[in-house]
Write a structure and sequence with these properties.
Helices cover 18% and strands 38% of the residues. The chain has helices at 55-67, 121-125, 134-144; strands spanning 16-25, 28-36, 39-43, 46-48, 69-83, 90-103, 113-119. Strands 1, 2, 3, 4, 5, 6 and 7 form a seven-stranded mixed beta sheet that branches.
């Protein structure tokens, strides 16, 4: 299948590398309600990989910054390639599973985040039109289906990195 938006020969294509964390406790999943282009949408704690940061560190950081939750990563759920419907952005998403450790209710959440909340899979599915993208429910369903890979398949060659 050909790409609907060809890239000029002198342009290097670079998808946006993101991480997301599926955090489950007692049948509920940790989500954020965030304002994106004026709309309130639901997403996992997720965000972009920063320079000089490992994927695991990015997942921990984004979860804390967006929810106030410190978590322990347990598994890699999968690696996902996704384009927005209008092809304005292309993503390479690394989805991780985690268990909650502690919450800092006084922590100021990232700009744009309205709140963090815990919802069941059914409550999330009922909000399908408000999900930021198809990977939100898809990553939860993958986790529920048992798609989990050991974290030691994720490597970083950054200096002084704990997951090298």
């Amino acid at each position: 299948m050909s790409d609907p938006t060809p890239i000029a020969a002198d342009v290097v294509w670079r998808p946006r590398v993101t991480v997301a964390t599926v955090v489950e406790a007692d049948g509920r999943f940790l989500l954020v309600e965030e304002r994106i282009r004026g709309e309130l949408v639901f997403n996992q704690p997720a965000g972009h990989l920063e320079p000089h940061e490992s994927l695991l560190d990015a997942a921990l950081r984004e979860t804390l910054e967006e929810t106030g939750w410190t978590v322990e990563l347990t598994d890699l759920i999968g690696i996902f390639r996704w384009d927005t419907a209008d092809a304005s952005a292309q993503y390479l998403r690394f989805a991780f599973a985690a268990r909650p450790l502690r919450h800092d209710a006084r922590r100021t959440l990232d700009e744009g985040i309205v709140r963090a909340l815990w919802l069941t899979r059914e409550e999330i599915a009922a909000q399908a039109t408000r999900l930021r993208g198809p990977l939100v429910l898809g990553n939860i369903d993958d986790w529920l289906a048992g798609k989990r890979y050991p974290l030691d398949i994720v490597h970083s060659l950054l200096p002084e990195n704990r997951d090298a």
